[in-house]
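Human: We require from you a protein record containing the residue sequence and its fold in token form, and nothing else.

Assistant:
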Amino acid sequence: MGNPPLTSEALARAIATPMVDRISVDDTGRALTEPLRDDIRFLGGLLGDAVRDHAGQDVFELVENSRRDAFGIRYSDVGRDDLAARYVDRQTGELMPVIRAFTNFALLANLAEDLHRERRRRIHLRAGDPPQASSLTATFGALSAARLPAATVADMLRDAQVVPVITAHPTETRRRSVFDAQNRITELMRTRSRTELTPAEDAALTVDIARQIQLLWQTALIRLRKLTISDEINTGLRYYDASFFHVVPALNNDVRRALTAAYPDAEFDELSMISMGSWIGGDRDGNPFVTGEVVAEATASAATAVVGHHLAELAALHRELSLSARLIGPVPPELTALAGAQDLDHTGFDEARTDEPFRAALDTVRSRVAARAAATLGEDVLEPADRLLAAAAVPYADAAEFLADLDVIDASLRAVDDAAIADDRLAALREAVRTFGFHLSGLDLRQNSETHEQVVGELLAWAGVCPDYLALDEDARVDLLVGELTSRRPLTSPEAQLSELATKELGVMHAAAAAVERFGPAAIPNYVISMCTSVSDMLEALILLKECGLYVIDGDGPRCPVRVVPLFETIDDLRGGASTLTATLALPFYRELVGAQGRLHEVMLGYSDSNKDGGYLTANWALYRAELDLVAAARAAGVRLRLFHGRGGTVGRGGGPSYDAILAQPPGAVQGSLRLTEQGEIIAAKYANPVSARRNLESLLAATIESSLLDTEGLGADSERAYADFDEIADLARGAYSELVHQTPGFVEYFTASTPLSEIGALNIGSRPTSRKQTTAIADLRAIPWVLSWTQCRVMLPGWYGVGSAFEQWIGDDADRLATLSDYHRRWPFFRSVMSNMAQVLAKSDMGLAHRYAQLVPDAELRDRVFSMIVAEHERTIAMHAAVTGSADLLADNDALKRSVHNRFPYLEPLNLLQVELLRRYRSGDASPLISRGIQLTMNGLATALRNSG
């Protein structure tokens, strides 16, 4: 293919052009952002005071001079070389406080931006403005305008489910102490913003905030030891107390009430749209540290957290529901029976049992929850009072029994005219039990199909069924596996002598079976097969589920509480995914199994590896096409399809605004349900506090409902033409991307040297290796370090490379083709989302900073050749974005990010320049712990500031 190289003058101009010149910032609406700037100045001033007081005047001046120079670079008053020179001759110990200062500033600026969004949202609501897009109010307004029949809405949403799946990420390693300090500062700043304070109160509040910032400054941002999976499990669970326990039940209740009010003839009583999922502790694809013991820890930790929540809420209800029988009149006999259902006379909980019937009933409920916890988790998880109760009670068999008793209390409150009381804490607890049960969240298992192949081959050989499974072709494998899966006979026995790999894999499966036994089938709902390419890949997972007793054959046929979920990741696998699904569903036993699972089949789509394989535009189009094909395949087979979107935080891994991404799905792809991964800094940005958690979860619900019930594609009769056009454009984009990534000699060497890839693997970042295998091949590299590396060096290559060439070649000199793309951009949410997300990435990129990272490549010829290709495509893509959208402003459709880029991105300059300097020292042989910690801190700081870095 080949595009002409940039001239040296054009290359120098591109490197020297600040990215702020690619966006248009004026004074329009400046007054609206003045409170944000005030907050940032206020917090930054207090941070500066903490730096001066605790690190000294010299460090403070170095930080301040770095800040001034960074802003000077934007306006070309200062050269990057001048700022970089400040750091070259300084000891690493002198640079560490500078890194910490700018990282802490990023934390505080994020906090200020989140509060500003809250402030603007409250202003809109108080002013009575039309509801904002992505709010449930706007969604229900759109449904009302569409005049949909109640039966249509009820049919689509009766089993609706939206499941954010929390996953681990190497840059989301913030310590609990830092997390808690941020939350304390957030609450204090919220008080400062919303409360009319006297001068004395304002001064006292400022002292409180300064105190918290001092604590934050003197708290280590990262751990010294390598992150473990236990750390990641605990990090994921912290968001339940922070927001999920409060927000998820409330939202589920709100949606149910709104639907019931809008469609009173439909039935929504059992609808709980949001539930939670997790991969932390169950995802062993390329992670040798996930074992059976880890699966047991993850599921038990989740169960412990939810039981603790339930018991705390029951104790709070006990304090609140002090209703006296002398004052409320007769209570229903069901409440009286519940109050006397357990013999608690010797526990000390029998006082006032006759006069306070609701408290007596709650004692019964609490005792049975405590007994359930003691039976499944051990008494150590209980407080002394709950241990006493547990000893006197019969454990609940499942969450349904628990909910039934809470329903009795609810009905009894309503019977004595206390519906308002029933609709408060009790309603939230009832919904929490519906949503979280006794398991909290569903832990998915995941493993690579290649590992399954090896283990199943060994099991078949040990059982004498097939000596060389790996030598069989696909048809022979399927025939053999179907035979095993229609037989009750196991392949192994407890005394089987197996390899370390097989023993470990079966250990994980037996731990999963034990978790299902202890916490119910919702504890382990899915088994995801990475790199799934064939029918046999899906059946091999069932073989392992059969060996641990989860897959069984009884008189009604095959049964398994765990769904097998194929993950289609590469471009070719996405293109062939529908064929694989169709062929698997054609197997009678498998179709019967899916029927027993509610005729629902889930398929996961890999945004990360498809991007790494084919580039940004090709991957996005392959995903869209795959969804269309999968929808058709499921419809033809008579099953419901649920798609699981494996999105990362960055655009290069499927990130971007979730609301827009869901609306951009093709027709029929949502159908009331979806699952999607949430990871990295995105989790903290979205779910660290109840306000942001509610806003983000509400947008997921709104988009899911709209995509399910309204026509959101917008192409009408032009859809087939648009699909054909994008087939051509995607192939051109893949060619341009492959020319660089897969065909350019020395590209891997350039990538490794010009980014912190090697250091991500060498330092204590994340619990898993950076590659699935011990190779240097791009195909074997995990998507997270691939994207994280390009993001840290500000190239952001996975989010745009190949797009400019594709558009330029497809359009050529044909003005009509340019007009066609512009029309698609105007009408088609998919294309508009693709372009908007790409523009966000381009706005965060910086070829001037990327040039400094390129200087780390020792081979000058390789460095110049590859870097010039990257810069040329960068310029080409920006130009084509302007041509198609009609705007030279990259962020014309995203004022919030525009403000952030303009106001905050100069603060990233020192972190990038310090990272380059420390990488240079590290690679020159200085492997001191301080250097390693400094590099890790810069990675953490940049990830925090960029907010979606990997």
